[in-house]
Amino acid sequence: MIEAHQLSKAYSRGLYALRDLTLSVSKGEFVFLTGPSGAGKSTFLRLLLVQERATDGSLIVNGHDLMTLSRREIQEYRRGIGFVFQDFKLIPTRTILENITFVPEVIGVPPAQQRRRAFQVLKWVGLQHRMNGYPKDLSGGEQQRISIARALVNDPVLVLADEPTGNLDPDLSLEIMNLLREVNAGGTTVLVATHDRELIRLVGRRTITLDQGRIVEVG
Amino acid sequence: MRAIDYALRQACVSLKRSAGASTLSVVAIALAVIVLGALLLVTWNAERVVAEWTSAAEFSVFLRDDASSEQRGAIETALDQSGIVAGREYVSKAQALVRFQREFAELASLTAGFDDNPFPASVEVRLRAGSENDGRADTLVRRVASLPGVADVRYDREWLATFGTGLRTVRGAGLVLAAVMALAAAVTVAAVVRIGLYARRDEIEIMELVGAPLAFIRGPFVAEGLLQGGAGALLALVLLWIGFAVARGWWGSEVAAVLNGLSMAFLPVRLCVVLVGGGMAVGAAGGLAAARHVGRGALTEPSGGR
Fold first, then answer.
1. Residue A104: CA count within 13 A, CB half-sphere
2. Last residue of some domain: B132, B155, B178?
3. Distance from A202 to chain B by nearest Cα, in Å?
4. Residue B9: its pLDDT value, please?
């Protein structure tokens, strides 16, 4: 699913966010990306979302060469990716249901199909009864569950999560991880960037550890 | 169609949410359209008057005091045979004096001391419409002026040309002013749209990351400017119409008297449509200017290296 070879991302003055990164994530795998702050986890996710381009090496995701995608191809590619933010990024002026239908809506999915699929994923995260409420009415854990539902609404082949439990207490963190494990159990590849070692230990999946832009451990 | 529907819905939501700031944009566009519309209203009416005067062209053939009746007959024959004269009227010296005393009553006492009637007899000629456009009127005037018994021919179209030039100058200056105001309005729209854009930055980021087309990302901001522009232009037309109705109520009869019964008219529908379209275009341009970078931040170009 993800093939990175000798991948580097350099900024000005010779500073490297990532250096000679070579890794592979198989289809249907659940992988943690960990390391201290500034290790390059978020940079790698940004490269996977094509928010930035690598300066060297190659990066192939689900058959797409991310180094050469055109603008239109990036749009197509991103429609197959789900993402989960640390700060949820729910839209406060939209209802819970609208927060989810918004995603298929802006890529042109017909309204009836938007609502049907949104209701399915809301039911799947167990929050269908809150669909007419607003994000401010939900707890942090519930907001992150909505964020996961939103990531799943377009049936992505890959879900990326950047510190998805960073704003949650340990119990809720485990709950969110269990949800992501269920996503993975359905065949979706999941890549989670986190610095929470205890959580990684509890979930127990393959872990790639970065430090100063390099892979220091694969476990 | 979905992108347009989405853009218009989101624009309406945004306008409702930022009603205060949007009002500012609407007023800015309305002011620009009022300036342009008022200018068009005045110049358009003035052009109608000029066209009316031009189509009803006249000239006067003043006769020498010693002109014989044969000479007068020859002049009238030349006029009748020209084919461009719609009508003519002989005004004798006595009629000319009476007319002067009637039209310039305050100066009438001056004529009391004359031993002799100083006003010449004349033939007043009305030309057929369009006859002056192809030079036939000028030819006739020159021919008549050379006939015996003719003292002078008054065919003064110079003031009409001067009036037309003045009208074009006023219109040009007004267009420049309106263009400057339109630019200011577009900048105001852009600033207001940018506020909305900032408020919706999370939404925009999500749209970028789910692969939404640019039409969905930028469309709502362009539509917001478009609606503000349309509302501003419509507001301007309503205010212009009210101003026009008031002016016509106050000075309509005086104007009609001066203009030979020609009444003041509001802008024709096609010009109103152009003004509304122009307002919408200015608003859309402002919206597009504000959103021109949106959707690019998360769509990077390929780098040179591998």
1. 23
2. B155
3. 30
4. 87
ipTM of the shown complex: 0.81
* Chain B CB within 8 Å of residue A69 CB: yes
Report how far residue A47's alpha carbon sits from residue B46's, in angstroms, rounded to the nearest whole number: 66
Mean per-residue pLDDT pooled into runs of 10, chain A (219 residues)? 90 84 92 89 91 90 90 88 88 90 87 88 88 90 89 90 85 85 90 88 88 85
Task: Indicate whether B306 pLDDT > 50.
Answer: no
Burial of A164 (C-beta count, 10 Å sphere; 0-12/13-18/19+): buried
Model confidence at B163: pLDDT above 50: yes
Asked whether residue B68 falls in the same domain as residue B168, the answer is no
Note whether B92 and B67 are same-domain residues.
yes
Tell whether B306 is covered by a domain: no
Burial A110-123 (b: 16+ CB within 10 A, else e): eeeebbebbbebbe
List the 208-227 stretch of B: residues with Cβ below 8 A of A.
208-213, 216-217
Residue A172 distance to chain B (closest CA, Å):
24
Most B CBs within 10 Å, among A106, A107, A148, A158, to test the B interface = A106
Q: Domain end: B97, B125, B155, which one?
A: B155
